[in-house]
Amino acid sequence: MRVLADENMPFVQELFGEWAEVITRPGRQLQAADLHDIDALLVRSVTHVNEALLSDARRLSFVGTATIGCDHIDTHLLQQRGIVFASAPGCNKVAVGDYVLAALLRIATHKNWQLKDKTLAVVGAGNTGSEVARRAEGLGMRVWRCDPPRADAGASGLVDYAQALTADVISFHVPITHEGPYATHHLLNAQHIARLNEHQVLINACRGDTWDNQTLLARQQGEKPLTLVMDVWEHEPRLLAELVPHVLIATPHIAGYSLEGKARGTFALYRALCQHIGQPERHSLSDLLPPPGVRAVSLQAAPEQHRLEQLVRLVYDIELDDRRFRRGLASGHAGFFDQLRKEYAERRELGSLLLSDGWVDARLGFKTLASAADNH
Ligand SMILES: NC(=O)c1ccc[n+]([C@@H]2O[C@H](COP(=O)([O-])OP(=O)(O)OC[C@H]3O[C@@H](n4cnc5c(N)ncnc54)[C@H](O)[C@@H]3O)[C@@H](O)[C@H]2O)c1
Ligand SMILES: O=C(O)[C@H](O)[C@H](O)COP(=O)(O)O
């Protein structure tokens, strides 16, 4: 069996190498000829799996994406051609929670905010949105969840989009969709941008095309700019460079890039492919992960906000990602965005740092020594 995988997908040799020949290629450059004698294709979000890519894929019986978003896959085409499809729902939701938590603590320092006095709205209350909501509740914030598809299906306790847009912080966690009653392309459009006030913060860690970046730039160049955190950009990897100086935290679509998140993504595809070909699973997720650099700390009491920021930074320093991004952009190298993603340094989740005794709040993503021992 021949498996073709994106070169940015970790652990493929370890998981598939025992019973498959594994070939790796840059995901953005995959072409029809590469799939000529391939049985299983494993991609990330940068590969468009469509008619053109599959035109010569006579042997292909399985396509998997090690991501949450599936907007790059023509699932209808796969169904028509009888090709089994798998994705990795929720695989990197914890990483997105870590990213937004780190961003909130950074924003609080920048704006001299006490987060417990502020309201956060999550737009899209699915896997990543719920994780972010939990973290914000752990910070003592008032949290609103906005999710019209769920509201229309009968879920309670949700707010509408108009109310969400009045929160101090608005964090977007929707899939990108272009049609239907809940289409999210330019969900944040010119009218919404005009209505926001200069004290509000917007976070985008879902898909760049959910925000109208050109109109946002015009707003930022005016007298009352917003505070922006952007992990995703319209038209990646060719983003609107003029917008970057007006963004407080700018990163290259890496919110979900924890080692654990990537491992869960590859592992979900391993499971699905094993099932597809009737191969028993011989690995577990925990075998794949090396021990983290910092293992345990002890806190006797709940840390105040500034101390919590330091604690989070021990594991994930979002400012470092922001600095690398600006340096990459300033270098003028056209491929800087993809290069940063390809060479992304190993990042562990907050849960890799165990709190040995005293204070712990699981909503913030931390684990205790005892809970880690229970999981083994
Ligand atoms: N930046 C990153 O690294 C990163 C990482 C993971 C996921 N993502 C993106 O985030 C998206 C969301 O991920 P998820 O795991 O939370 O997905 P999910 O499917 O679990 O949740 C998405 C939620 O959005 C809701 N929704 C759909 N249309 C909406 C609308 N118009 N307004 C409000 N809510 C709406 C859905 O009902 C659903 O509850 C993914 O599709 C992916 O594109 C980005
Ligand atoms: O949808 C997702 O899961 C994320 O956007 C994912 O982290 C994107 O990473 P990529 O597949 O582009 O490496």
Automatic annotation (TrEMBL):
Record-annotated Erythronate-4-phosphate dehydrogenase dimerisation domain positions: 288-355
A GO cellular component entry from the record: cytosol
Residues of the D-isomer specific 2-hydroxyacid dehydrogenase NAD-binding domain: 112-255
Any one biological process term the GO annotation gives: pyridoxine biosynthetic process
Binding site for substrate: S45, T67, Y257
GO molecular function, one term: 4-phosphoerythronate dehydrogenase activity
Pfam families found in the cross-reference section: 2-Hacid_dh_C, DUF3410
Coiled-coil ranges (or none): none
Top-rank EC class of the record's enzyme: oxidoreductase
Transmembrane stretches, start-end: none
Active site: R207, E236, H253 (proton donor)
InterPro entries reported for this sequence: D-isomer_DH_NAD-bd, Erythronate-4-P_DHase, Erythronate-4-P_DHase_dimer, NAD(P)-bd_dom_sf, PdxB_dimer_sf
Catalytic activity: 4-phospho-D-erythronate + NAD(+) = (R)-3-hydroxy-2-oxo-4-phosphooxybutanoate + NADH + H(+)
CDD domains: ErythrP_dh (cd12158)
Binding locations of NAD(+): D147, D231, G256
EC number: 1.1.1.290
Localisation per UniProt entry: Cytoplasm
Family, as annotated: Belongs to the D-isomer specific 2-hydroxyacid dehydrogenase family. PdxB subfamily.
Oligomeric form and interacting partners: Homodimer.
Function of the protein: Catalyzes the oxidation of erythronate-4-phosphate to 3-hydroxy-2-oxo-4-phosphonooxybutanoate.
Name of this chain's protein: Erythronate-4-phosphate dehydrogenase
The organism of origin for this protein: Oceanimonas baumannii
